[in-house]
## 1
Amino acid sequence: MENKELLRKRVDELASKVNGEVEEILGMLVLKVKGPYALEALTTAKSFTDIPCDFLHDLTAVDKIDHFEVVYQLTSWKGPQKLRIKAVVDRENPVIDSATRLWQGANYMEREAYDMFGIQFKGHPNLKRIYLWDDFEGYPLRKDYVTETAEQRSVVFKLPAE
Amino acid sequence: MAVERTEELVLNMGPQHPSMHGVFRMVVHLEGEVVTKIDPKIGYLHRGIEKLAESRTYPQFIPYTDRLDYLSSPHNNLAYVLAVEKLMGVEIPERAEYLRVIFAELARIASHQVMIGSTALDIAGWTAWSYCFRDRERILDMYEMTAGSRLTVNNMRIGGISNDPPPGFWDALKSFLDDIPEMIEEYYGIFFGNEITMGRMKSVGILPKELAENLSITGPVIRSSGVNYDVRKADPYGIYDRFDFDVPVLHGCDSYDRTLIRLLEIKESAKIIKQAMRDIPEGPVMAKIPKVIKPPVGEVYHRVENPKGELGFYIVSDGTTKPARLHIKSPTFVNMQMLPLISLGWKIQDVIAIFATIDAVLGEVDK
């Protein structure tokens, strides 16, 4: 696969520029960078010569207990290249640059990640909760979010024991 | 001459509105009849499926995927089981591969029939709706024969498919495929060739190619904006590379083409099913997989071409029986972003037509 080797070369170059690590998981190239470098990595990946990864396929976050990972799935409108970029974000102060200036389509995906993980996307035009209501407390997909027990959830009225 | 100006009117459409395809609400700002701003509000059907996944085992989660895009449930099953199989490195029997393709393409036909019917209904074409639903009923009967349920089919399993279809299935499938050319002609005559349809939908809601690419739009919507992109061709999964079919691409970028492309895709799906029926081998439908499914530590992203766009599952496994994180990339959630951008300046009744062509299913948008 010529395409794959070329992509590997480009990603290695990019990794040395942004202090990232490259690994291959199940045939997919994964570039792991620190949060502040994420936008630079995405900008470069979008304009790789010959094999641009110019289609932001998915954007989400993962809770890794001691930090968050913002995961970008990139592919291309032309060609089979695929790249996954992971940005490590601090748990106490989860801030990362918004990708909306590169792809308008990141808008809703970032709002979803904000809604579920509380990650602040700097430069997002309208960072509000998308699924849950505005005064909802907490971020449900974080691992430390406490869900209510079955008893609390139950709406069945119980008669006091006689 | 004095120009008469009207006051801006803010109109809440939905969540209970006949043209909103579920519980979708949009706040429409109007200047007379002309739309100046749209603010979509979603989340009325949010059930927290991603959170639920973290407390279910891998096989237990399959029925939940039926409830995403409930008009094409076999497709959602397929996307999920393919992701888990990729993570585990499971090979599935040939017969199961073919049956999966048959069910996935039947789901595509059923979903497109609903889309054509409901788009017609939204612009007051009552007759086309009943034609589409009459024909979709035959697909639901085939689902019922095989899986016992008509909407949430749930017949894919990790490692294959739940059971072989009964003998009556193949006759029903054959007679359905034989009738498809006639169906397409009927839909065309009653809806697409209609002068009122053309007047209401041609050149309405233009989605330019560059904007569509920038918005990460997928599926029939982007293919009607002149982008030839279909995962079945770009990144083939399953056995799709064995079939000979075309990907219809239209260049109108308008609501009419976004609807017409569904009709053309029904034709291509029928072609795939015919080839699959011809080539399907005998044999088992389930691979030998362990009773307790424990994928190795790792992560996988798998995408398929859903009737509405690209459906992706991102699964992070920590080596236990339950996923550590499961993310669903739903196509219509992303496609919905085009609505506020391309509806500006159109009249309120045009917005209904534009929204209908996104073919949103709120079960999938809201997860």
## 2
Amino acid sequence: MIEFPLGSEMFGIWNWADAAIRIVIVVLVMTIVAMYLIYGERKIVARFQQRLGPTRTGPAGLLQSFADAVKLISKEDIRPDGADRWVFEFAPYATFIPVFMTLCVLPFAADWGVRNLPLGMFFVFAVLGLNIVGVMMAGLGSGNKFALIGGVRAAAQMISYEIPLVLSLLSVSMIAGTLDLNEFAAKQGDYPFVILQPLAFIIFVTAMLSELHRAPFDIPVAESEIVGGYFVEYSGIRWSMFMLTEYAALWSFSVFGGIVFLGGWNFPMGNEWGWGWQLALTFIKSALFIFFIFWVRSTVPRLRIDQLMTFCWKILLPLSLVQVVANGFILVYDGPYWLLSLTSGVGAILLIAIIINRAFRRRTATTSLVGAYRGAQVSAQ
Amino acid sequence: MSIWPTERTLTADEATFDTVDMTINIGPQHPATHGVFRMVLTVDGELVVDCEPYIGYLHRGLEKLTETADYRQAMGWWDRTDYLAGMCCEWAYCLAVEKLSGIQVPERAEYIRVIMAELSRINSHFMFLGAFGADVGSFGTSFVYGWRERERIYDLFEEVAGDRMFPTYFKIGGVTMDLPENFESRCRWLLDSIRQGLEDLDGLLTGNEIFVERCRNLSPLTKDRAIALGITGPILRATGLPWDVRRAEPYGIYSRLDFEIPVGRQGDVFDRYFVRLAEMYQSVRIIEQCLKEMPKGGLVCATDLPKTLRIESGECYIRTEGTKGEYGVYAMAKGGNKPYRMKLRSPSFCNLSALREMVVGNYVADAIIILGSLDIVLGEVDK
């Protein structure tokens, strides 16, 4: 293993100082990354929309997020009259802290993270699940009906999608035989787990979009319906904390997904080429996820809440459950690994087939429209 | 204001378990209302139980203002009714005054009027496609796609008329000035660009499973019900009735032009969207024919216009196919240089009256896109 200056013993002399330094690192790294994700999203989505995005602040608009931060910090922190004071004011912290805490267990290179917990994957779920408390607090405490609806929608969505998310990760961790994220990456030296579990990967990405309140599952923050949802009443620094949280969660999930499914710092050639390459791998893989999320966001519309629930409970949940059972049988009876790929691949093809079949059925329904459109003729009156 | 209901003594039943319908106030400042429209939704969870629309935030007294001004001065107020397609509205007003006064419009001006009105229609429908995509939730991509073509149409308007949104280009007896020299080539380029923009939006929205899933079978409307509610325009045609004033009672030179009327089958939100999309292709077709058949030179305005237009007496009702439906103008003259009465039958207003019926029983998210599918323009609703 490569020794790197931030190993777990470096600040071991004074535990409190150690903890304080690690907290500062977490907060700083997360904040800066989140700021540049905001910049990145604005640039990338702008390209999708044939715009330029920020260009004026700094070279190519690179300082835009800092300018925004300065503006947000100097803005008045408004608390509405009807708001529940303490619930309203503490809600941003209740979402902010759990998301930032997930960074603690993510290994960016071999054995190199803020802390390496043996139950790292469990920690990530447990802590990210707390996030919803803050969202509910904001929804209930704002004294605003849009916020209330947003908070309730977020809770319903979170509870539903947590299940397929956890089940999909469970099926992968059954193969890895561990919940330690560092070991997870270490076991993917030859091939990433996405090859063994494509279905789990698809379910994970879908559920991740939902957990992050990203399109097409951005129902809790639906801009055109409830105008931002639970954070509609926030302004200034508290609003920016919600914003930071959103992007920090995006990054956490992307790094996490990269480690679990795409081989993290290990695949390909992570062990051979040293920690620089390992870090690069982590960032490339998280960037892939992030770009995918931005891409989806700028192209697809939003689902309705009942369609969202149907998709979760009737399609994702049964498939992920079946996958866990199939993995169990194969692993208990020492089946070959290609059998895992086969069962999961069949499931993935099934899922995609369901979606494409629906889409094509709809497509033929649309062409039944009588009209002077694409060659179809209508008799003029 | 508290979100909780005011305290009251509970009955025995309520004390055990009670749910209270909540009212949500959407508008007047809300991204989904496309202007200053307000609707108060009573919701039971996510389901809309009742809907109460409030209008009048943009009322400018158009009809009364028109009565106070000279026939020619009033033009500027009329393109501010349906401000997405100003020239369609100007045309209706011109038609009413011309019919009262018996002024003849030169041939070339008729063609120019059709071209401009159809470009305005495309412009307005692009706005609909973009905004509707945003209502359904596509984060502004459809909006910007629509905006790109609108920008190019507006550029052409600026070159032709000197202004983008409110050109006041039509005038009684014709149009204010002739087309610029390079108009035909520019317009053909613009039509290609519009076709491309339509393809893009079609691929982005119609090709999207989520979009279709959201819009299909949502608030279907029957033919009879639509007629009973006084609905006109693309929403009526979406129910399957090929009623288009340009065909039914041709005005201008529409009787000479060859185009088709797209109709839907079940009048749901998707059909409303799709009919508008198909209609834009027809508008492009109309403009191409006009460019081909238009006299290359000649007058663009009647020459025998009096210095001050005075109309002795008379009344008329002019109906035109506005972008949202039947845009009707009732005009009455009793001498002098001002109309005695000018009444606007605005399609958005009549279509909006069906909102409650369509919205009740659907989800909140659907209420937003149903409102979007009505494609109201508040300048026209509130006059």
